[in-house]
Task: inverse folding
């Protein structure tokens, strides 16, 4: 909702605006075992925000009624992974919607970073992750892709998620 509210400002910027969502490899499609959900998320021509919301609503309903296990959801940090699946899909959708409007939309996985959420364990410091995010966000407009997932500094194709 915040991103949607800010879009008019992004569109008025004199240069390319950047939306860089902090995501995770846990939200890659290879973590999702349900073939129907994978097909839905891979079908970029048909995917809608409503589809993404329906996926999240289905997950929440299955958690509430205790049936989510064995239904093809990611197996590690499941709730976090589903939120990142939704973020990645929305970012892809938004990038396609804004194509040609000088607004770049990408996702970035900082890797396993030492934060409160990871109880202080991880391979990187928050400062290191922040520096990489800043570097990606500040790429010159001619070098700024859109609709990509970056693992650390390397762009990964969504089709391989």
Result:
């Amino acid at each position: 909702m915040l991103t949607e509210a800010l879009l008019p400002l992004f569109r008025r910027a004199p240069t390319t605006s950047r939306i860089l969502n902090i995501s995770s490899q846990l939200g890659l499609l290879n973590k999702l075992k349900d073939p129907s959900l994978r097909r839905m998320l891979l079908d970029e021509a048909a995917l809608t925000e409503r589809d993404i919301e329906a996926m999240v609503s289905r997950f929440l309903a299955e958690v509430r009624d205790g049936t989510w296990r064995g239904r093809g959801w990611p197996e590690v940090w499941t709730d976090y992974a589903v939120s990142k699946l939704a973020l990645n899909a929305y970012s892809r959708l938004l990038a396609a919607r804004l194509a040609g409007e000088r607004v770049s939309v990408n996702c970035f996985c900082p890797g396993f970073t030492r934060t409160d959420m990871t109880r202080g364990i991880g391979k990187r410091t928050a400062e290191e992750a922040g520096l990489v995010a800043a570097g990606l966000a500040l790429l010159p407009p001619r070098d700024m892709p859109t609709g990509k997932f970056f693992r650390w500094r390397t762009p990964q194709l969504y089709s391989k998620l």
In short: The longest strand covers residues 103-109. The CA atoms of residues 57 and 64 lie 10 Å apart. Helices lie at 2-12, 35-42, 49-64, 78-97, 126-137. The first helix runs from residue 2 to 12.
